[in-house]
Amino acid sequence: MTVQMVTGTGTEIGKTVVTAALAAAALAAGRSVAVLKPAQTGLLPGERGDADEVARLAGPVTAAELARFPDPLAPATAARRAGAAPVGPEEVAEAAAKLATEHDLVLVEGAGGLLVRFDERGNTLAEAARLLAAPLLVVVPAALGTLNATALTAEAARARGLELTGTVIGGWPEQPGLAERCNTEDLTEAAGAPLLGAVPWGAGSLSPEAFRAAAPKWLAPELYGRWDAAGFRETWAAG
Asked: Which residues of the chain register pLDDT less than 50?
């Protein structure tokens, strides 16, 4: 694994915290890590962005951002409203490839879901992933409705010739209901790829020290952690 794209089935589902957990687990395993945010929206210059938050939680990573637009909108729309040039897939691929020459792992965190438009040509994170031949890690919610969104994301990715590393639940509740517990089984079928972790709800509010210590417990060995999918499902099996 050199470049790993991190996308999701929507917005506000934990992509940044999952990216931070993966970065922390990789650092704990002795890897050097860079985090690239191609387009940060909804923030003004000087405010902390998603890549900065990953660095705060995970530790000594290289944090990079290609463009920032103030409106909290899709990157293409936010760039247009700001009168600024959008970020194209070639720019993303070039920046990620350069970081990959200097780091063991480069995490590229998208905006919103996989097919959110980055520019007026209709390019998305998927086009950058294709240029890099990089796999997708899909962050998904645990609750009712996640199976359809996960299946749609996986189908869109495969239609574009992209590989799925797997899925990670971006916010596992302290007291999961029936839907969440059933989804621990059904997400693998919906994605056609393994469930590779579950990050607890609210993990981003932990202190950096506590976050870094716990992160490997939330992710499977494929993501530098020691999370056990079978044990997790057994713990939360639906009765």
From this structure: none
